[in-house]
TrEMBL record:
Keywords: Membrane
UniProt superkingdom: Eukaryota
GO molecular-function terms, A-Z: sterol binding; sterol transfer activity
PANTHER family assigned to the protein according to its UniProt record, in alphabetical order: GRAM DOMAIN CONTAINING 1B, ISOFORM E
Residues in VASt domain copies: 61-241
Protein name as annotated: VASt domain-containing protein
UniProt source species: Noctiluca scintillans
Taxonomic classification: Eukaryota, Sar, Alveolata, Dinophyceae, Noctilucales
Chain intervals for the UniProt region annotation (Disordered): 19-50, 237-258
Amino acid sequence: ALTELVIRDCQEGVNALHERLSTAEIEDSEPDDSDDEPGSMPPPAPSSALSAFFPEDDQPFEKVLEECIPKLPFNDIAKDLLAPDFEEGRLLFDFYKFSEMTEMDASPWIDESDGDLIMKVRELTMVAKVPPAPMCPPTTRVTISVRVSSFTSGGQRASVLESSTLSHDVPFGTHFSVQERVEFRPNAKGTSTWVVKSTRVHFLKRVGWIKGNIEKTATNEQKKAGEKLIKCMRERSKARGTQSYMPPGDSMESRDDEKKREEVVWQLQRRTTIFQFDWRAPFLPHDGPKRCGWVDTAYNRHLWMPPGYSQNTKDMPPLIEDDSFKEIEKWHVNNPLLTADADGWQYAVDFYRKDSLWSATSSGNSVRRRLWTATYAVNGAGLDDEMSMGRPPARLTQSMR
């Protein structure tokens, strides 16, 4: 077909047409995909499971849990997470079973490894119980995209378990995904495993005014799920008994006689107004468990704080050793972050968990925090059961006031 185009007295139109024709010539000169050699194929698109971990927004993760599991070697956990089978006896399967999931099924791993970075992705489907809520069914089908990465960071191996969960049968369930990140890393000897869990909600569609409620509910449920994961790991640690992994150069005798435990605690303080310097333990009603002044990494009352202990004004963590504990490294301020003053204090308007909201200056800020750490040696095997459950021996909490 031939088209005749007549343009009169319009230089701008001529220029625009010339530009369009030039573009068309370039497009026509590009090779057609149909002319590719036989057997050649375009690069495969990323898997749907992998794409779940690349949201378009930059919503930060919120840390909800940090625990150390004694006598559970990191190497065992790292291997277990990457195992090809998904069945009873595997940590992830046992965790979901303990969480009362049913009809569990898993796709094969998709290997996305690159060099020293080991990365595998798979998709899980199951049926989950739904917490009581208006208009919600008792159960829902869920799809969970799982990614496990193993890498070296700072000269130390680490494994990261990431998941993105969609609920199909609850209102607005497909409008958002609940994402979690669980980092596993070894202690100094590799005989215990540190667990740090963070979570966030990634919204795929607008949900209006219920967005805040969804975020709050999801975060609370993820905290509960984290506690269940820790319980599963402690059960595995307890089941190992004397079969614990022993690194080269270590001896069973030395490990039985002396076992190390590192403890961390946040010291929190608040002042009356930003114009005063009367720093003391948090005192406002909404400060809740933070009013004791010494909290864990989730800002809950520290596990080693005795019942009834509150409004502590001491300048050292309120712990006391007895014959069962030998202090290897004394309590000291150990804030690894650069945003702290000379005494290790960080300042903010309120007790945020997000590190970027804290600064090294008190000007205009109402609260402050600093991190303390200490290392203890636990003498005698009689304390193993209490330590493996994450509790201090009863004798430790005496005379702490």
